[in-house]
Amino acid sequence: MNVYVRLRVSSEAFAMPVKHVLEVAELGVVAPVPRTRPEMLGVRNVRGLILPVVDLALLLGIPGTAPPGRLLVAEDGVRRAGFAIEQVSGVGELGDPTEETVSDLLAGAIFAEGDLIGVIDVPRIFDVLQGSGALPGAPAPRESGAQPGAAALQGSGALPGEAAPQESGAQPGAGALQGAPP
């Protein structure tokens, strides 16, 4: 069993390994940064550190049902960011992910307490953000055939600041857990 922070993003349940979570706070004042990707809300000063703030719902492709009010500060090694979420619903043990998901930003999913809970792949999220230019530092390694400057999100091929084209038959804003086995 692993320990996770359970959270809500729009109407969907997610979990993030507690080892990656530094703190949860009010969203507070976020200063917008011009010419950034849509999921990049801006930056915020958290205890003297200027952190990028990312709308987790937009990053995961989930339509927002309520404006985010909480900031979950996470890290992977030296990389840190704040993720705008609706709420934290608890901290506790969950089994390993056993269900597949359609999102490459999730490590899988778990059925627990009547919820299908998407387990966030924190290193992958940071790789995507760093590769798209949303985080400082060297870009993440690209998959073979990827063009420099191409967005890492869902292989859209959109340049930063451009809307990603919808795949044939894909619903705009389709949730990250869509298509998970029942």
Task: Give a structural overview.
This protein is mainly beta. Residues 138-175 and 178-182 have low confidence and may be disordered. Strand 9 (106-112) and strand 10 form a beta hairpin. It contains two helices and ten strands. It has one domain: CheA-289, Domain 4 (OB fold (Dihydrolipoamide Acetyltransferase, E2P)), CATH 2.40.50.180. The chain has helices at 56-60, 122-131, and strands at 2-9, 12-17, 21-26, 40-46, 49-55, 70-76, 79-85, 87-94, 106-112, 115-120.
Number of spatially distinct domains: 1
Strand order of the largest sheet: 8-1-2-10-9
CATH level-1 class: Mainly Beta
**Tally of extended strands?**
10
Order of helices and strands: EEEEEHEEEEEH
Strand proportion: 35-45%
Per the CATH scheme, the topology name is OB fold (Dihydrolipoamide Acetyltransferase, E2P)
Calculate the terminal CA-CA distance, rounded to whole Å. 22 Å
Largest β sheet strand count, sense and barrel closure:
5 strands, mixed
Mean pLDDT metric: 80
Any idea what the radius of gyration is?
16 Å
The percentage helix is under 10%
The number of helices is 2
The poorly predicted ranges are 138-175, 178-182
For this structure, what is the CATH homologous superfamily?
CheA-289, Domain 4
Secondary structural class:
mainly beta
Under the CATH scheme, the architecture is Beta Barrel
Give the overall shape: globular
